[in-house]
Amino acid sequence: MNFPYHLTGLRDIEFKYLEEIFELTKYFKKLIVEKKTIKEELRSRSVINLFFENSTRTLTSFELSEKMMGMNTVNFTSSGSSISKGESLLDTIKNIDAMKFDYTVVRHSTPGIPLLLQKFSGSKIINAGDGKNEHPTQGLLDIYTLKEIYGDIKGLNVCIVGDISHSRVALSNIYGLKKYDVNVSVCGPVSFIPGNIEGLGVNVYNDLEEAVKKNDVLNVLRVQLERDAGNLIPSLNEYNKHYGLNERVLKSNKKIRILHPGPMNINVEIDYNTSVSDNAYIFQQVTNGLAVKCAVFKLMNDNKN
């Protein structure tokens, strides 16, 4: 199959390509877990990680997956670039394009930056998070984790809990999970729920305990203080009181599975004991993210257009 040249989101990606990614992810996951050498199929390729926002898991896993595949990797941060000297974003993009990277992995606080890169760059673009829009590789690793747990996920009940209004993870999960006929819902205070969210085919809970009782999975999001989400709630303590996940809340559904994209704010959206409980698959998600990225690079490389 002719895999897409770019990966900027899950909204428009075809189901057959999701299946192709996950089949190859399974292969790479086995190699990673068994600590076997991955064939450096992309040794002749180059990639720049163009990160305008801070990151731990996403940047590290991209860099490691790139090196596993044999790629020449360069990390870019805006704080140490000519942007701090007044260079425009567009000129930065054009200068980087002149270096002829095969891939550009971009993370930016402004929605739409990956599409801008498509217009002014000849490299293959992977969106590592653009503002409140999408985070496709996070969506992919979350869905793959569910497929590992359940196998067939059709009809599964998944609730995304927390700061939906500022979350690119939420949108990528919604777009991707709906392609598998998953019943998706969101839960949080009214101020964290976008007014048009039900138009995406999701249900809304304002009560966490009800969401726990009626769902198989909770994907828990943090309060994004860097995007001024704290101004939409009275306090973090108040948020924790009503929407913090803990052992008491889980008693009504002891079989519920818990995901979290990280970073976790312990004792805000989740407490420590819950984060390391048998219900949680948070660190499994991190390993799966590494395998997903290897799969995406391999499939994009196979597209010669």
One letter per element, helices H and strands E, the order comes to HEHEHEHEHEHEEHEHHEHH
What's the total number of strands? 9
CATH architecture of the largest domain: 3-Layer(aba) Sandwich
Low-confidence stretches: none
CATH domain fold name of the largest domain: Rossmann fold
Quaternary assembly: single chain
The CATH homologous superfamily name of the largest domain equals Aspartate/ornithine carbamoyltransferase
Distance between termini? Answer: 12 Å
| CATH class descriptor of the largest domain | Alpha Beta
Shape: globular
Rg (CA only): 19 Å
Strand coverage percent:
5-15%
Mean pLDDT over the residues: 94
Strand count, sense and barrel status of the largest sheet are: 5 strands, parallel
Widest β-sheet, arrangement of strands: 7-6-5-8-9
> What is the SS-derived class?
alpha/beta
Describe the structure.
- With 305 residues, the chain is an alpha/beta fold.
- The protein folds into 2 domains: 15-133 and 288-302, Rossmann fold, CATH 3.40.50; 136-285, 3-Layer(aba) Sandwich (Rossmann fold), CATH 3.40.50.
- The protein is 39% helix and 15% strand.
- The chain contains 11 helices and 9 strands.
- The protein has a 5-stranded parallel β-sheet, sandwiched between helices. A 4-stranded parallel β-sheet has the order 2-1-3-4, sandwiched between helices.
- Helix 5 (136-150) crosses helix 6.
- The longest helix is centred in the last third of the chain and has 21 residues, at 282-302.
- The mean pLDDT is 94.
